[in-house]
Design goal:
mainly beta, 7-stranded antiparallel beta sheet, about 50% strand
């Protein structure tokens, strides 16, 4: 009996000791409070993964229909996704506009996964029915999707066949075989206004990659470069003109808007440019990736809506920084 009482007493002492120990632990433990709206946190610099995760989730503008202030000039954004090409082949695709539209602009997003993939072509088809976009990875394999865009234009009371008669492609002089070729296409007929433009890189083998495709006055300027590995290529610019006056419709007016990111930044950089709300509607997209050393390359140049465009550039293998410029050509009825 005495032995049983002794065991119960020891058990009671053990329970009391454990309770005192846990109370001491809780006293020393700091309370962790949840963050409130007044809390601050470090803003992370965008990386290849988080920037492209957003891009992958938004195939922006597809099917969107937009008008100028008169309601008589209409654009529609057509787009399509294309599966990855095997390294090191190019991903070349075309997007057609609807039968009631003519194609006056377009662009693409090389939706890379890790290392990078870049645009090498963005131009109209010769019949104004679609837009051709090409992308590729470079040196390091990156099987990527290509999102291709085409901007269709329609004028009230004018059929697509009639409107095609008032459009003209002014091709630029193809460049010489160079490491960093440049070409410029000029509207040489004053009865036409610049409404868009495009680029085609030729004779590249290991890779000449797009650096610039943008409007400048009545011209369209394009540039590319080889990267890390020597690969001289040729490049050709295309300017798209539309008649300033169209019988049965009236006069048209175009203008060029631009914006830039002046930050000194490595890795991916993007500019989303919202255009002024002054009656115009988007007709074409352009971009220029400046660089200070080894090079920055364009992986995105696309319409988001009738008043918004998005462009993107990044360095590749060898770090470099530089400003990124976004351009938009716009149109309205005068």
């Amino acid at each position: 009996m005495k032995k049983l009482i002794f065991l119960k007493a020891r058990l009671l002492l053990f329970v009391v000791a454990c309770g005192l120990f846990l109370q001491a632990c809780n006293k020393d433990r700091k309370e962790v409070k949840p963050l409130t709206s007044n809390s601050t946190s470090k803003k992370l610099t965008p990386s290849a993964s988080n920037v492209l995760e957003r891009s992958r989730s938004i195939i922006s503008g597809c099917g969107g229909i937009f008008h100028d202030a008169s309601g008589q000039v209409t654009i529609q954004i057509f787009c399509n996704d294309f599966g990855p090409a095997s390294h090191p082949n190019s991903n070349e695709r075309a997007v057609n506009v609807g039968p009631d539209y003519v194609c006056v602009g377009g662009g693409g997003l090389a939706d890379y996964k890790v290392h990078g993939a870049y645009l090498t072509e963005s131009r109209p088809t010769g019949d104004f029915r679609g837009w051709v976009v090409t992308s590729k990875d470079h040196i390091r394999e990156d099987r990527h999707k290509l999102h291709a865009y085409a901007i269709g234009l329609k004028l009230r009371g004018v059929t697509a066949d009639q409107l095609r008669q008032h459009l003209k492609i002014f091709p630029g002089q193809e460049s010489y075989l160079e490491a960093a070729p440049r070409s410029e296409a000029i509207i040489t007929d004053n009865s036409y206004a610049l409404i868009g433009g495009g680029v085609q890189i030729r004779d590249d083998h290991k890779g000449s990659l797009l650096v610039a495709s943008y409007p400048e006055g009545s011209s369209w300027v394009v540039k590319s470069k080889d990267h890390v590995i020597s690969d001289p290529a040729r490049i050709k610019a295309y300017a798209i003109g539309i008649k300033r006056y169209i019988p049965g419709f009236g006069s048209l007016e175009t203008d060029i808007e631009s914006a830039e990111d002046q930050s000194v930044k490595y890795s991916p950089k993007e500019v989303t440019f919202t255009l002024p709300s002054d009656g115009y509607v988007l007709s074409s997209v352009g971009a220029y990736a400046e660089y200070n050393g080894k090079g920055r390359l364009l992986y995105m140049m696309r319409p988001l809506s009738g008043t918004q465009v998005e462009v993107g550039s990044k360095d590749h293998i060898r770090p470099d920084n530089g400003r990124l410029h976004a351009y938009a050509v716009r149109i309205k009825k005068r």
